[in-house]
Amino acid sequence: xxxxxxxxxxxxxxxxxxxxxxxxxxxxxxxxxxxxxxxxxxxxxxxxxxxxxxxxxxxxxxxxxxxxxxxxxxxxxxxxxxxxxxxxxxxxxxxxxxxxxxxxxxxxxxxxxxxxxxxxxxxxxxxxxxxxxxxxxxxxxxxxxxxxxxxxxxxxxxxxxxxxxxxxxxxxxxxxxxxxxxxxxxxxxxxxxxxx
Length: 196
Description:
The protein is α+β, with helices and mostly antiparallel strands and about 200 residues long. Helix content is about 20%, strand content about 35%. It has helices spanning about 5-10, 25-35, 90-95, 110-120, 125-130; strands at about 40, 40-50, 60-70, 70-75, 80-85, 100-105, 135, 145, 150-160, 165-175, 185-190, 190-195. The protein has a 7-stranded antiparallel beta sheet. The chain has a 3-stranded antiparallel beta sheet with strand order 1-11-12, with no helix packed on it. The chain has a two-stranded antiparallel sheet with strand order 7-8. The chain starts with a helix and ends with a strand. Mean pLDDT is about 85; it is low at about 5-10.
């Protein structure tokens, strides 16, 4: 590198401030910048095992679900996907206990489902699933939303702690495209949107 460029090139990376961000990057600035990245919307689901599987009178396992926008394909060989879950959330804890889960890629007509499962201080999962058509995954038992653009059944391969989230990498065990109709549901600038 020419000597004159050495004088103007930064040699020390920005140090983290009290918030954990580099000095000069606030939570609001980071959130605003990342909101400009459009993402697909999925419903991540799992079946929680019964409290006492040996007791025939014990209630069946309960469905659990959460809306996610940080979901992506990782690998074709083997087929792997990644979802980011808030550390300590119900879904993070559940998938940590049992490794089988499902993903429904939501269509633009399923905004109400995304909103319902993204609510803070929400109702019980049992009530959230009450009027939503779904089938049980053949392998995972996870509820897969009817009318979704695609559904996947996955088994956790790896968990990586990353800040206040856990990155869960799952091997795809089953993939279906049940509905070819409609466009995808997108999340952009803090709102659900669809392709124009």
